[in-house]
Write a structure and sequence with these properties.
mainly alpha
Length: 110
């Protein structure tokens, strides 16, 4: 069996595990899906404070569209209430960060 190596040809032989609530796992899954990265790569970049670079593709744009549709539904649901739920605001922030990274990645060179 071949040894698994990362993109820099380093051996990865350690397993790291931790516990999360259902809400935290849902948020993490959403962020991973919208990043377009594999779960392992996303967690390594986040935990080592490396920038998470999102590479846009057709699948990612569909996921972002679905996320925006969910946000729109949530905002319509709470439009008559006193304030937006923290989950909806978190989702809006996440999508805004993702869109910001797209605009930076596709900005024309000066």
């Amino acid at each position: 069996m071949a040894k698994e190596r990362d993109s820099s040809h380093r051996l990865r032989r350690h397993t790291v595990a931790f516990r999360m609530s259902d809400a935290e796992k849902g948020e993490l899954d959403r962020r991973i899906a919208l990043s377009g990265l594999q779960r392992q790569e996303y967690l390594i970049k986040c935990s080592l404070e490396r920038p998470v670079v999102v590479v846009g593709n057709r699948s990612l744009f569909r996921k972002m569209g679905a996320e925006l549709a969910g946000i729109r539904g949530e905002l319509e649901r709470i439009s008559g209430s006193e304030g937006a739920g923290e989950e909806a605001l978190s989702r809006v922030r996440l999508v805004a960060e993702m869109l910001s990274s797209f605009s930076e990645a596709f900005a024309p060179a000066p």
